[in-house]
Amino acid sequence: MDDDRTMRERMLAGDLYIADDPQLGEESRRALGLAHRINTTDPTDADAIRALFGELLGLYGEGAEIRPPFRCDYGYQTSFGARSFANFGLVVLDVARVTIGEDVQIGPNVQLLTATHPLEPGPRRDKWEAAEPITIGDNVWLGGGVIVCPGVTIGADTVVGAGSVVTKDLPAGVVAVGSPARVVREL
């Protein structure tokens, strides 16, 4: 691609980029190292875990808690709002921005996946990829095993049932379930 931007600049802009770029590789290794430290710290040492999340994430709100193990691509692309809680096994592929509001409840083994890949075989073989941001509104509850796909926004006060796959935006104040997730009632 004829473009003077770095791969990092392309990634942050949401354009196609190559993930094994040296600068991105260094940033990914930093996140892997911090996540490893989080995941191997004494789980009763809440202050140490909080400090590590504060170093890893773009925002780790007051009173927030993420229970290890935790995995992410870069960390700095993720904002985790005040008083929000994530149970064991949260995976955040934060190639694009992931914004988690305040007072959010996230069940175990939830995946927030921003990464996309070209459908065409040539660019995919050449390792090009992109991403679309995810936004989780305030007071959302994601049940265990929920998968949120690239580009999705979930409105405030919405509940997503366990095991659901969210492929499209969900409005505020609804219950959604299934694969793909569909609204089954208003709250």
Total DSSP E strands:
20
Radius of gyration: 17 Å
Largest sheet: 7 strands, mixed
The largest beta-sheet arranges its strands as 3-6-9-14-17-19-20
Shape category:
globular
How does CATH name the architecture? 3 Solenoid
And the CATH topology? UDP N-Acetylglucosamine Acyltransferase, domain 1
The topology string of helices and strands comes to HEHHEEEEEEEEEEHEEEEEEEEE
Number of helices: 4
Low-confidence stretches: none
Strand content: 25-35%
Mean pLDDT over the full residue set: 96
CATH superfamily: Hexapeptide repeat proteins
Number of domain units:
1
Write down the CATH class: Mainly Beta
For the record, give the distance between the C-alpha atoms at the N and C termini, rounded to a whole number.
Answer: 48 Å
Structural class, by secondary structure, is alpha/beta
Measured as a percent range, the helix fraction is 10-25%
